Amino acid sequence: MNKNINIALVGLGQIGIYLYDQIQKKRKDIEIKTGKKINIIGISAKNINKKRRFKIDKKIFFKNPLDIIKKKNIDVLFEIIGQSDGISKKLVEEALSKKINVITPNKALIAKHGDYLGSIAEKNKVNLEFEAAVAGGIPVLRTIKEGLATNKIQKVYGILNGTSNYILSEMMSSKKSFKDVLIKAQKLGYAEPGNPKLDLNGYDALSKIKILSSLSFNKKISKKNSLMEGIEKIELKDIEIANQLNCRIKLVGISELINGYLFERVHPCLINKDNYIANVNGVMNAVIIEGNPIGESILQGEGAGPGPTSSALMSDLLSILRGNVKYPFGISRLKRSNPKIYNYDKYLNSLYLRFEVRDKPGVLAFITKKLANKNISVERLIQKPNYKNKTASIIIITHESKEKDAKICLKNITKNKNILKSPVLIRLL
Amino acid sequence: MNKNINIALVGLGQIGIYLYDQIQKKRKDIEIKTGKKINIIGISAKNINKKRRFKIDKKIFFKNPLDIIKKKNIDVLFEIIGQSDGISKKLVEEALSKKINVITPNKALIAKHGDYLGSIAEKNKVNLEFEAAVAGGIPVLRTIKEGLATNKIQKVYGILNGTSNYILSEMMSSKKSFKDVLIKAQKLGYAEPGNPKLDLNGYDALSKIKILSSLSFNKKISKKNSLMEGIEKIELKDIEIANQLNCRIKLVGISELINGYLFERVHPCLINKDNYIANVNGVMNAVIIEGNPIGESILQGEGAGPGPTSSALMSDLLSILRGNVKYPFGISRLKRSNPKIYNYDKYLNSLYLRFEVRDKPGVLAFITKKLANKNISVERLIQKPNYKNKTASIIIITHESKEKDAKICLKNITKNKNILKSPVLIRLL
Question: Is the ipTM of this complex over 0.95?
Answer without folding.
Answer: no
